């Protein structure tokens, strides 16, 4: 039975969304802006991600009252066993069970696809978000700082120079080995994720090389308002030689040559070495995201 009640073309109640029109994206953008402003947050959701939905599966769950979008839960497209998500409800519509309905629909959808865990991303400073985490029984896993480039600081000369070039499917082996060994993932699973990410026109992978040797990699994800650096990694034998900083400086200069958008990244709060590197390049912490697990097998 459909969960979209259409009355004179007005949406009402729970909607399972596959693709987005420009008018619907404008509604989502307004919802995000209001919720961010209400608690001074930076919710981890980019409207460009919604725009890029291919429509082959349901990853977004919306809630309408009197034709007005009042709630949204969005799943990350990537990952099979684990799915990250974030969501929001307009302040004046909270405490009515709307987000619980959105979460129940997301659980039903992801269980049917074989997902084992949902990962709720919630800012540490969100009072409403933390209350929902406690109410739904999600279990804390880890936290990441979001850091935004405020004052770019180049180091200057390096004893050993590396190059940074755009990477494509032909580089997937090097990218997967660097990423998998750095983050403790399987190489084959990482290959699949990288190739799928490369289908997104807003994602660009880069490969750092010392001569013919691949030493590090990262990917750059262009959002509506900023670029985000993800999966930044340097192979263990090449660390502490300035290669990571060179890669950051090179990609920052490339972005700044063509765009005025901001540049951001995320880093685990316990990774003091990486935090120190990012601060020295001019990044500053702006918020902290907690990651909370909901076990779908229980």
Number of domains: 2
Number of alpha- plus pi-helical segments: 8
- Enter the CATH topology name of the largest domain: Aminopeptidase
Q: Note poorly predicted spans.
A: 1-8
Fourth CATH level, the homologous superfamily of the largest domain: Gcn5-related N-acetyltransferase (GNAT)
Which class best fits the helix and strand makeup? alpha+beta
| Strands, count | 12
Instruction: State mean pLDDT (0 to 100 scale).
Output: 94
Task: Describe the structure concisely.
Helix content is 33%, strand content 33%.
Q: Which features characterize this protein?
A:
Aminopeptidase; disordered N terminus; 298 residues; single chain; 33% strand; 2 domains; alpha+beta; twelve-stranded mixed sheet
Q: Topology of this protein?
A:
Blueprint: E1 13-17, H1 22-39, H2 47-51, E2 60-65, E3 68-75, E4 82-89, H3 98-112, E5 117-123, H4 127-136, E6 139-149, E7 163-167, H5 172-183, H6 187-197, E8 203-210, E9 213-222, E10 226-234, H7 243-258, E11 262-268, H8 272-281, E12 283-295
Parallel strand pairs: 4-5, 10-11
Antiparallel strand pairs: 1-2, 2-3, 3-4, 5-12, 6-11, 6-12, 7-8, 8-9, 9-10
Helix pairs in contact: 5-6
